[in-house]
Amino acid sequence: MTRFIFYVLTLLLSVSCNVITKLDKSVCEEKHLFILSGQSNMARLNEKESFEPILKQKLGNESVSVVKYAMGSQSIRRWYRNWKPAQGDLPKADPCLYDSLMLKVYPEVEKENFATVSFIWMQGERDAREKHGGVYEESLLGLYNQLCQDLDRKDVNFIIGRLSDFDMLNEKYIHWTMIRDIQVKVAESNPRFDWINTDDLNDGVNRRGKEIKNDLHMSAEGYIKMGERFAQKSIKLIESTK
Fold it and tell me: Which residues contact 231 (CB under 8 A, 6 or more apart)?
């Protein structure tokens, strides 16, 4: 009798999952890919510290795949193939960082059928410093569309980390506030896009034990919170765009 009851319960669970699969792509089996890229503040983010744990708690340990490739002091022209300066011919696009990122992404999408893909982007400092704000909006949208095309998907979610309050007077990085505004504008232009605030993440103590205030980089605690915010926004978009 006990074996019979166990068999019936197992059968009911199997049928339940099959029904969910037909109705909602199955919460039992869905896989989700998260692609993280950008410059130094993304490179310094430890995704296993807070980003991945929140996602796995919500979506399941076996449902989450994370790919990250980031490098400090890099302009968006190192990702976007069709990047062009506002004037003249130099500098030129050199999307080798994007190519390196995709060398890590392609094996993941070849072995798994992902229900959702989320692109998490933390970058813009270099473009603000080099005064490329005039072409940043086009480049940011172009990069997103480039990724969608390369993955052959039209449903990629996009979360942008807005530049912090490091140089709100545009003294060192002339296009700082311009790029901040562009990032929010782009993030609010599409239901699949969103952004996180980082203004409160660059105060406190950094990982070397140094006190910082409105720093270019985040504090030790700031990186933990940044990972949390990226994860929470990712989950929100997954839930709202299914």
Answer: 50, 51, 52, 54, 55
Taking the C-alpha atoms of residue 212 and residue 204, their distance in angstroms, rounded to an integer, is 5
Residue 123 neighbours by CB distance under 10 Å: 28
Phi and psi of 157, rounded to 5°? -85, 150
pLDDT one-digit tens code per residue, 82-140: 999 999 999 999 999 999 999 999 999 999 999 999 999 999 999 999 999 999 999 99
Residue in the structure block whose two tokens are 């999307």: 95
Half-sphere exposure of 205 (CA within 13 A, CB side): 3
Does the reported pTM lie above 0.85? yes
CA end-to-end distance (rounded Å), the chain: 42
Torsion sign across C-alpha atoms 85, 175, 212, 221: negative
